Amino acid sequence: MRRACGSTVRSPSHTLEPLPRGWGVAPSARSTPTLPTRAQQDVGKDTPKKTSKNINNLNYYTLPKYVFFIYLNPIMLTATEENYLKAIYKCEMAHTVATTNQLAELLHTTAASVTDMLKKLCEKNLVIYTKYQGASLSEEGKKIALQIIRKHRLWEVFLVEKLGYTWDTVHPIAEQLEHIQSEDLVDKLDKFLNYPQFDPHGDPIPNAQGKFIVQPQCPLSQLKPNEKGSFTGVANHSPEFLRYLNKINLKLGDICEVYEVNEFDKSILLHVNSTKLSLSEVTAKNILVCILK
Questions:
Q1: How far apart are CA 127 and CA 75, in angstroms?
Q2: Domains within the chain, CATH numbers bracketed
Q3: pTM metric for this prediction
Q4: How far apart are CA 174 and CA 151, in angstroms?
Q5: Is the pLDDT at 18 greater than 70, yes or no?
């Protein structure tokens, strides 16, 4: 919720006045400051004209000789609310509608719980929700979702590169770390890691402004004989699939060159760094490559 808190405001006489917690009065320099009388506070022709406006997240209320303000805190979200924003963003990136049933499946909850949460997020202007038509993120909701994803992927890089975790074990740990609120910590983590652009699974990491690199990718299963591509990501992030890729020694950055596609089961025979490898159609569909000319 938005809460009032103490601050300092610049008065019309360009001096800075310390103010009590929650609100403040900055007197004009042209006359001796006096508070409005009770009569002035009554509704009538003697009531001072009051105006209000919002500047830099400060609500200003002006009366003759005075400036009143209330500071509005940034939106604070629970971890559950952040998970909903991230799930909706995931649906949007997959070009699917974020329906209540879809979100219930992603978040392992009930459709009724999803509906209640979407209404709450809608009240906070983070989600655009229409009953029976699904939900989408507002501009503010999208900004927050991208920052959550940024934190998650930076922590995954840190866990793999600095602490020696494997790419099939970092996701649940990063799920916990992504809800840390300190922007300063995240910025220092980004600098410490030398500003990585991709996480250990090949997914792009948004920068502090929410911008990220989009790689031209396609499933390995779409390559024809004599075509080759660089292994840049995975469509399936399950630990089982990642461990399988470890088992066959297939890593990000490997060059995959197809030399035969089986007509019967669409399995693929390919060379990976001069080593022959056979992959099923299911496996090939979940390996993303950047086609090399």
A1: 13
A2: 8-39+48-71 (no CATH), 79-137 (1.10.10.10), 218-292 (2.30.30.90)
A3: 0.74
A4: 8
A5: no
